[in-house]
C-alpha cells in the first residue's frame, strides 16, 4: 500500500505545476477585475449578506470546473485522508491558481475540520473596505469558500466553508474554516448504468 504524500511533497508539486503547467495572467488586472465584480454586486443587491451569497455561489460554480483542471495538471490521485485533501488544496490548488499557499492549521479532534490561514491574499491587494461594508458583514473574498465547496463536492466531499476572520475587517489574520460534513456516494448519471 502506498503511503500518503507529505506536506513537503505537496508543496514541491504545487511549485512545479505553478512554474511549468499554468498560464499566468497579470495579477493587478486579476485583482482589479475581481474588485469591480464585488462593487457591481454591491450596487445590484444593496445587501451585504446577499453579496456574500452571490460570491459564494459564483465560487461554487467556478470550483466545480477548476477541479478538473487541478486534477489534470497536478496528476494527483484520490486523497486517502481528509488531512491529505487539506494539504493538496493548500499547497497545490491555491499555488496552482493564485501562487499562494495558505497554512493548514487548527485541526479539530476528530480530524474533520481545519483552517486555512492566509499570509497573503491576492484578491485584497489595493482594497480597503468602507465602514458600511464592515458593519454590513461583507466577506470580500467569499468566492474562495464557494470554490472550495464546489471543487471538493466534485470529488465526493460535502464540506461547509466559512470565513472566520479577514485582515480587511481589521483582524490579525485571514482564516477560512473548512468542515467535512460527509463523503458523498459516487453516482452514475441517469441513463448511464
Strand order of the largest sheet: 1-2-4-3
Sheet having the most strands: 4 strands, antiparallel
Low-confidence parts: none
> Based on CA inertia axes, which overall geometry fits?
globular
Q: What's a quick, concise take on this entry?
A:
By secondary structure, the chain is α+β, with helices and mostly antiparallel strands.
Describe this structure in words.
With 193 residues, the chain is α+β, with helices and mostly antiparallel strands. Helix content is 49%, strand content 15%. It contains 6 helices and 4 strands; from the N terminus they run ααααββααββ. It has helices at residues 7-20, 27-45, 48-74, 82-98, 131-136, 143-154; strands at 103-105, 113-118, 157-165, 174-183. Strands 1-2-4-3 form a 4-stranded antiparallel beta sheet, covered by helices on one side. Strand 1 and strand 2 (113-118) form a beta hairpin. The longest helix is centred in the first third of the chain and has 27 residues, at 48-74. It is globular and about 45 Å long. The model has no long low-confidence stretch (mean pLDDT 88).
